[in-house]
Amino acid sequence: MSDITLGNILQVGSKMLDHFVEILKINHWTIHEGNVFHKHHYPDIVLSERWLNLPELTNEHYWDTDLLGCYSLSPIPRIGKLKCISIPEGRNENLREGYIALYENPIIQCASKLSFCTKSPEDAINGLSLIVLMHEFAHYIVIDGGTSSIKKFNKNYFIKNYHADEDVKNFHEGLAQYFTYFIIKKDKDLLPIFLTLSGGQSAPYQKWKELCDSPNGEPKDIRTILNAILLYRELQTVCPHFKHQSFENFKSIIREIPKEIILDKSRWMDDEIISMVEAIKFGI
Predict the structure, then answer these.
(1) 46: which DSSP letter?
(2) Both 112 and 29 in a single domain?
(3) Number of folded domains in the chain?
(4) Using CA atoms, how far apart are residues 191 and 117, in angstroms rounded to an integer?
(5) Residues 155 and 267 grouped into a single domain
(6) DSSP characters for 190-235?
(7) Rounded distance, CA 18 to CA 64, Å?
(8) 1 occurs within a structural domain
(9) 251-269 pLDDT, tens per residue?
(10) What sign does the dihedral 241-242-246-250 (CA atoms) show?
(11) pTM (predicted TM-score)
């Protein structure tokens, strides 16, 4: 069985991430800079033969198509067999960005079921690896990206509630899938892999379609989505009692608050906007 081509992930993946980050910067999102290996300062990227932070999973979950990688907020733990592919000699240079782990064996196993929509089994493995990389990078963007002047999502809340609350999982997986789709939607090789994979995943990984104008259609304006995430973060300070990191609440922001207001940060804390937000039927 083929291995994941590390050079391909770095070469192609870095270019895709750089292109996406340029789009983010145009929309006034900041990414840490200064990594000598990348134009921008990204989380470290590692390959692992085992899960790094989900020890409760049993072998029956090992090929679960929902579990092909992870983004961790922590520095890289030294457990399992790791292949660090974005830093030399396995050294973690980017402690504040955490790391992205690609689960090598599950990706290879899953790719074998997707090779019918690629030119070769190797293309399926490398294509799926890139999609998992984009998806996990999107988690980093949602949790830790944005601007330094706007409050970040509560990371402890994320860690505590992701597995316990389906709505929280819908929020994070729906947005990660939305950004992944946005990145690869014009790539004729990656798009069939993404759509086939997504179609076989659980409900949270289908929620991205609700952020498109039609299922498998054009994604909603990315600047609106990015600003809505930042606005949602800001609402934590003025509406502390409504449920945070909720997909249903996020959709309410997009649906109920006019787009021109979402795009105008200077109006977010106006009394008129606060009243509008309080009138939305947020989940508690």
Answers:
(1) E
(2) yes
(3) 2
(4) 10
(5) no
(6) HHHHHHHHHHTS-GGGGGGGGGBSSTTSPBPPHHHHHHHHHHHHHH
(7) 29
(8) no
(9) 988 888 888 988 888 888 7
(10) negative
(11) 0.84
Looking at 152, 184, 211, the residue that finishes a domain is: 211
pLDDT in tens, the chain (284 residues): 455 565 677 778 878 888 888 888 888 777 655 444 445 567 778 877 665 555 454 444 445 678 899 888 776 654 444 455 444 444 444 445 678 888 888 888 888 888 778 888 888 888 999 999 999 999 988 887 766 566 677 777 777 788 888 999 999 999 999 999 999 999 999 999 999 999 889 999 999 999 987 766 777 889 999 989 888 888 777 776 667 789 998 998 888 888 898 888 888 877 777 777 777 655 54
Element (H, E) at 62: none
2 lies in a domain? no
200 and 274 together in one domain:
no
Does some domain include residue 174? yes
Residues 136 and 166 in one domain: yes
Structure tokens at 106: 């599950």
Q: How many CB atoms lie within 10 A of CB 197?
A: 25
Which domain covers residue 58, as residue numbers?
8-211
Q: Please indicate, yes or no, whether residues 201 and 234 belong to a single structural domain of this protein.
A: no
140 and 170 share one domain: yes
Cβ atoms of residues 70 and 101 within 8 Å? yes
User: Which pair of tokens denotes residue 209?
Assistant: 């379609």
Q: Report d(CA 141, CA 1) in Å as an integer.
A: 33
**Considering the domain boundaries, does residue 151 fall inside one?**
yes
If asked whether residues 173 and 238 sit together in one domain, one would say no
Contact 210, 174 (CB under 8 A): yes
**Amino acid letter for position 271:** D
Same structural domain, 147 and 265: no
Please report, to the nearest 10 degrees, the dihedral formed by the alpha carbons of residues 221, 227, 232, 233 taken in order.
Answer: 140
